[in-house]
From TrEMBL:
Residues 5-60 form the HTH cro/C1-type domain. InterPro entries: Cro/C1-type_HTH, Lambda_DNA-bd_dom_sf. CDD domains: HTH_XRE (cd00093). SUPFAM superfamilies: lambda repressor-like DNA-binding domains (SSF47413). Residues 95-106 have a biased composition (Basic and acidic residues). Pfam families: HTH_3. It comes from the Bacteria. This is HTH cro/C1-type domain-containing protein.
Length: 116
């Protein structure tokens, strides 16, 4: 049982159904959160529970801290702040890229089109 969540609900004077309504989930979902502390909810639901109860997420679900990896293997090596921006914002005065002209005789129908 998730005792930290149960105690936070008692401190906030909230029932399972009240917390479910505040977080936009089914009461059965809150029941699952209480019965299985090893399986934390989705991040947006953890944030909603935290706001509704006035508690930090790490207090209610201590295992969440272990989900965030840190260390030398998580070091940011290089940052590209404008990568992909050209796809979002058209450049002033830029033209559409030109498509190469079709070569004569390419495809299955080579030669002039004839009327029947």
């Amino acid at each position: 049982m998730n005792d930290a969540l149960q105690q936070a609900m008692v401190r906030a004077n909230m029932s399972e159904s009240q917390l479910a309504r505040a977080c936009g989930v089914d009461p059965k979902t809150v029941s699952r959160w209480l019965s299985n502390p090893a399986r934390p909810p989705h991040p947006r639901h953890r944030a909603a529970v935290s706001r509704a109860l006035g508690e930090e997420e790490s207090v209610i679900w201590p295992a969440v801290q272990q989900l965030v990896k840190s260390g030398a293997d998580r070091e940011m090596v290089q940052l590209y702040p404008y990568r992909g921006l050209h796809q979002l914002l058209p450049m002033a005065g830029a033209r559409e890229p030109r498509r190469p002209a079709a070569k004569e005789g390419c495809g299955r129908m080579s030669g002039p089109i004839r009327a029947r």
